[in-house]
What we know:
Blueprint: H1 2-21, H2 53-61, H3 66-69, E1 73-76, E2 94-97, E3 103-106, E4 118-121, H4 122-132, E5 143-147, E6 159-163
Parallel strand pairs: 1-3
Antiparallel strand pairs: 1-2, 3-4, 4-5, 5-6
Amino acid sequence: MKNVNSLFTLLLLLSLALLLSACRPLDLPVETDAAGMDAPAATSADAPAPLSTDEQVANARSAGPAAIAEGARIMGYPEEWPGNWPDEVAPELIELLPGDNGWTCIADIPDTPGNDPMCLNDTYFEVLMAQRNLTDAPATGIGFGYMLQGGGPIGSPPHMMVFVPESNGNLPNFTT
């Protein structure tokens, strides 16, 4: 029995290593000027135009494994994002495509630096909406999320996220 448990543990670790080795950021072109030098960072005055619906869908799907992203509901941000959040409830996300697998992929957050789309299971999506609606997170269920393009407030590398109900007390600590 001990050998079976050891073999199972080894297979589980190898599967996890294989999954994580497939996680890498989307290669985005680097803007260069006429001399071939990297272009200066954009400012809010010369921010890029909003993504088209097709670009938002592709961006949102890049956040998770293809097996999840293909059947996921796709959401985007409204033009008025972020409104006065976190002082007031955030504007509602816009559904770009319906889904049927219990996952929601959300396009890049427009007011953050970098590319940070995410794919969340239904529980983690409820957690995110509770945060944005300034309400309590769900008390049951485990939330899973993918950010395979990386991103977030501190520019994290590609990662997975897990929310457990016992962590509800710490949710206000992660409001921005």
